[in-house]
Amino acid sequence: MKPFSFLTDYRPVFCQSQPQEYQSYIEIAVDVLQVQNQAKLEILKNFLLSLPSLTEIENVLAEAVHHLAQTDPQTYRWIIQHPDYLMPELDLTRLAQQLALSKLKNSPLILGEDFRLTRNGQLRLSDPAKKLLQAETSFKERLLFTEFLQADCLSKS
């Protein structure tokens, strides 16, 4: 089984009947995120409420973050340093945990010994698990993991 990757596999599926409209929302989200301003981001999130569902809002934001991870490392770094700015519409901490768990399950490390999920859903990591996440990932994933490890979102065992 191929490991899940936030930067390549968490690609949203939009209503195919209006792809141009969704592309416009994504482009607006990218432009606003590049300003790197929390107040402007709140205005964007209010604007996105015109979309038919919360899932579609999450998808637009996820696609914008994905685009910036590929094209604008400075803005991408700002986003992952301020994941709470995207909450509750997009939970980057949850996505980072899902990506980390997928990578760890597909590694030689041992579930329950090197990494585990707590009852409240936190991912606890040993030092070897942390090193694996930082060593065997792309630059963008490594940056994502580094920021969340520093913030203790992917917790110590």
Summarize the structure.
This protein is mainly alpha-helical and 157 residues long. It has helices at residues 6-9, 19-35, 38-48, 54-71, 73-81, 92-105, 127-135, 139-150; strands spanning 115-117, 123-125, 155-156. It has two domains: 19-86; 92-149, no CATH class.
Mean pLDDT: 82
Please give the count of helices.
Answer: 8
User: What's the main sheet like?
Assistant: 3 strands, mixed
- Would you tell me the structural class of the helices and strands? mainly alpha
What coarse outline follows from CA principal-axis ratios? Answer: elongated
- Secondary-structure element pattern, one letter each: HHHHHHEEHHE
Number of strands: 3
Whole-Å distance between the termini? 26 Å
Strand order of the largest sheet: 1-2-3
Estimate the strand proportion: 5-15%
Query: Total domains, how many?
Result: 2
Helix coverage percent of residues?
55-70%
Cα-based radius of gyration, to the nearest Å: 16 Å
Poorly predicted ranges: 1-17
Structure description:
- The chain is mainly alpha-helical.
- The chain has two domains: 68 residues; 58 residues, no CATH class.
- 60% of the residues lie in helices and 5% in strands.
- It contains eight helices and three strands, in the order ααααααββααβ.
- A three-stranded mixed sheet has the order 1-2-3.
- Helix 2 runs antiparallel to helix 3 and helix 4 packs across helix 5.
